[in-house]
């Protein structure tokens, strides 16, 4: 390539570009072009399909039981597939000799592979435990042989294990809201061993703070109690508390039975002794104090309990025996000594970290099968880049604006993404487990099936990026302005790749529904439509470098804001900001790259830009994000990416001030001296899914 050609590549476009229509005139002209109607419809359908599925893929992987490390590894392979895709699809197009047929096959295959994801077996299945735990509130001791004790405690009667929240032990959070229900006699198994010895219960954890009580550095797991270990016989009496002062100014509260009262539910707050060894050994929580919402002592903190008639032992007139017929080697249970106690219900989520029983199958099969399907899926997904390239070529040939075509795609996302989220919620009756994402895959397959048919009806002919990408890359990278654009696109891909794959998982973690997630996409797309309508004017007024700096500033606000978000409804505001920080930024990337290229290199530039943004950028954002999440959590990762966005935006601002403005000023002065009309900041159009 001659020096003259090289110089022409880096010079601003001259007066012939001034003839391009602008503003409202361009919009009206674009809408009147009959050849662009199929492009608008296909963009609408394709982006609708992307919007109904891809944001929910991380939730789908987590619902199959994959860890963050496995999810990150799969997304890492996805980035490799995104880079290889233009080369592979270019070779296939050369063999077929018909780009239109190849695009139809690619979109049909995407729909089929999307359905194949539903055949991946889960590596784990969660069986939710009951919402409430059952305890007995009574006078007891850590030694079950001595039932006449003045120690008030909660005894675990639940048949499922409870892993006490570690932060409750570490921070001594012992206030527990309970529902005091009917009272009666609870009879215990005489054959039950006096102590529960289980090595797993006392297994050390990573907590080694010597200032904590001994029980706090162990895994606190309430022993699994079979229901036959205790039998409840309801009776018509309730708990009566009478407190009287002592000589030293303190008080003593005596617990008795109040006969003849109807069973009613009383809400109370108990102060539990979480450091007692009886928690691990026998599933008993000593009660240090109690506050009841009803009665003469309503709202008062009662302590120093003494058991009167409430703690009296009762003996069966006739011994009751029980034997489980399903277990031949099981000894019979003997119920003889009973105690007056009240049943207490506690929400499992307030006390236990394990809300479901985890059943493990074959994690390796799930991981490798999903990775295979995902690699094929992402290779085929690269076909969307080829469709974008063909659309850009056709739009440029007709003098239209690709931003307007893209606008129809965002309208599609705004319509179909909430539908997908709503269907996921409708088919996910249990809110305690991850949503059923199957409807999203069915919608995706249907939309891409329609797109496959539509591809056969439109004329698409352009130069594939894969044919010259390697050959042109050396000369392209000699342009410093383009190099900095690629760096900006790479960082933007990192930040938005993390948000694209993990945002919905974060919203689900803080209580957001799938319907809200879909609605967030709607807000994002509706917010970007006015920007796309006026994109030509904005790019000419501000210039692309300034637009990129502005987009990074908005991205910092969005990422830092998410790190402090607790109300999932506020995601609608932050996703509106994403219309600027990502959608509009991406439109500027493509337009700026098109401006920096020539007729012979523009396709290669777009291929390189897409590979760096969606291949490397999204790959690093998804894989690196999974590692950061595992180490620091979702919120801290948002802050780290916010800091990266700030640093990148600031450095690019300095590059714009101290290099681009000076160079453009010199070029304008030189060409102005030669009498040539110049437009330093112009725009072209294009984008990717």
Helices and strands in order:
Elements: H1 3-10, H2 23-31, H3 37-53, H4 57-63, H5 68-96, H6 99-116, E1 124-128, E2 132-140, E3 151-156, E4 162-163, H7 166-170, E5 175-189, E6 221-222, E7 230-234, E8 237-245, E9 251-259, E10 266-272, H8 278-282, E11 284-292, E12 301-303, E13 305-307, E14 314-322, E15 333-347, H9 348-351, E16 356-360, H10 363-381, H11 383-398, H12 402-426, H13 438-455, H14 469-476, H15 480-509, H16 514-533, H17 535-542, H18 544-563, H19 571-596, H20 602-632, H21 634-673
Parallel strand pairs: 9-13
Antiparallel strand pairs: 1-16, 2-3, 2-15, 3-11, 4-6, 5-7, 5-10, 5-15, 8-9, 10-11, 11-12, 14-15
Helix pairs in contact: 3-12, 3-13, 5-10, 5-20, 6-10, 6-13, 12-13, 12-16, 14-20, 15-18, 15-19, 15-20, 15-21, 16-19, 17-18, 18-19, 18-21, 19-20, 20-21
